[in-house]
Design a protein that fits this description.
Structural class: alpha/beta
Shape: globular
CATH architecture: Alpha-Beta Barrel
Number of helices: 17
Helix content: 40-55%
CATH topology: TIM Barrel
Bound molecules: 2'-deoxyinosine, zinc ion
Keywords: Hydrolase, Metal-binding, Nucleotide metabolism, Zinc
Low-confidence stretches: none
Radius of gyration: 20 Å
Order of helices and strands: HEHHHHHEHEHEHEHEEEHEHEHHEHHH
CATH class: Alpha Beta
GO cellular component, one term: cytosol
Cofactor: Zn(2+)
CATH superfamily: Metal-dependent hydrolases
Strand order of the largest sheet: 1-2-3-4
Number of domains: 1
InterPro entries: A_deaminase, A_deaminase_dom, Ado/ade_deaminase, Metal_Hydrolase
Organism: Ornithinicoccus hortensis
Length: about 375
């Protein structure tokens, strides 16, 4: 067996990583609030159920509670955030701050997702929720552009909760607001027991309307969920998709059972990997995987950063993208996720460039706008 030549040491420093332009396709608006904002909003609306009222204690609570090994327990932490996101002012503030925080981290393109149906408790209707978020996103983008910093383009995805029964309604809401910064649709929530095919009606409607959608699949549940999302529902991208590795073997052994860290696999090992029919389809069709390493560690979908399938799938040239999922619960950022892969999984600048270009290629943004960001912003920064 031949081994790969030693890789040149081009690991970027944390400062370099921070300065790189980044593209983010999978970030939950309600999973990225500033802890102090949660405290302020709780004060304003008279919510007294927060587990802590001091900023760093609250930040610790979210990160520790989400670090549970189960998607269901991870998701239960959202109750605390949703309690304070029920007014137009709160939604606008959270959306504006989200855009500002991402821009400060070097993000130049972001798709922010949230479930409008979870923000109706204060008497708003679905359209009012979308408009309040849109206002905040616009304010954030204008503030960044006005400050002379590198601009950020931000869009939203409207999520339907997979355990609920409002997906058709949210799909219609998506289509109604395509001109208001909404770029597409998603389903999220607990995966086991709630297959995406329950929402077929919504997906068929979206396809008839030429609307984009992604589906959370292959996170807490395996290949059947991914297969349904793609082959029944027609998902353009997969939220997570990390369990796709269950369809990969090396010399008849599941790749997850091979002890060599993915970063150290030789070219011969990579060439010997056998793809099952579903994994082959995903790679052949260039279906983007919205991968979120830190989140997966917390929910138990992956064991460690070094053993996270993102490195193997990237090396096998699946269309991998790198994402934050929930910055508050995972105490992370795009720079944080990039830094982890550089420190623990052997990633270099070329890998970071590839996931950034992949994300832009896969964005729910018109083709010419995607191309402009790749050519004018990403390539000069990574190749300069
Ligand atoms: O990683 C996730 N998997 C499934 N559902 C998720 C994940 N992260 C957040 N959510 C849920 C909780 C939020 O309230 C909802 C909308 O953003 O989406
Ligand atoms: Zn998610």
């Amino acid at each position: 067996m031949t081994t790969e030549p030693p890789t040149p040491t081009t690991a970027p420093s944390p400062e370099q990583i921070r300065a790189l332009p980044k593209a983010l396709l999978h970030d939950h608006l309600d999973g990225g609030l500033r802890p102090q904002t949660i405290i302020d909003l709780a004060d304003e609306v008279g919510y007294d159920g927060l587990p802590a009222t001091e900023e760093s204690a609250l930040a610790d609570w979210f990160a520790e509670s989400a670090d549970s090994g189960s998607l269901e327990r991870y998701l239960s932490t959202f109750d605390q955030v949703l309690a304070v996101m029920q007014t137009p002012e709160a939604l606008t503030r959270v959306a504006r701050e989200c855009v500002l925080d991402l821009a400060s981290d070097g993000v130049v393109y972001a798709e922010l997702r949230y479930a409008p149906e979870q923000h109706l408790r204060g008497g708003l209707d679905l359209d009012e929720v979308v408009l309040a978020v849109h206002r905040g996103v616009q304010e954030g983008m204008e503030e960044v552009a006005g400050s002379g910093r590198r601009p950020i383009v931000a869009r939203t995805l409207l999520t339907a909760m997979r355990h609920a029964a409002r997906s058709r309604e949210i799909a219609e809401l998506t289509v109604r607001h395509l001109g208001d910064g909404v770029a597409g649709f998603d389903i999220a929530g607990a995966e086991a027991g709630f297959p995406p095919s329950r929402h077929l009606d919504a997906f068929e409607f979206l396809r008839r309307e030429n609307a984009h959608f992604t589906i959370h699949a292959g996170e807490a549940f395996g290949l059947p969920s991914i297969w349904e999302a793609i082959q029944w529902c027609g998902a353009e991208r997969l939220g997570h998709g990390v369990r796709l590795v269950d369809d990969l073997t090396l010399d008849g052994v599941p790749v997850t059972e091979v002890e060599t860290p993915y970063a150290e696999w030789t070219d011969d090992m990579l060439a010997a990997v056998r793809l099952g029919a579903l994994a082959a389809y995903v790679r052949d069709r260039r279906i983007p995987l919205e991968m979120c390493p830190s989140s997966n560690l917390q929910t138990g979908a992956a064991p460690t950063i070094a053993a996270h399938p993102i490195t193997l799938l990237d090396r096998l040239r699946f269309r991998v993208t790198l994402n934050t999922d929930n910055r508050l619960m995972s105490r992370t950022s795009m720079s944080g996720e990039m830094g982890l892969l550089v420190d623990r999984a052997g990633w270099e600048l070329a890998h970071l460039r590839r996931v950034t270009v992949n994300a832009l290629k896969s964005a729910f943004l018109p083709f010419d706008e995607r191309l402009a960001i790749i050519e004018d912003v990403v390539k000069p920064a990574y190749d300069g």
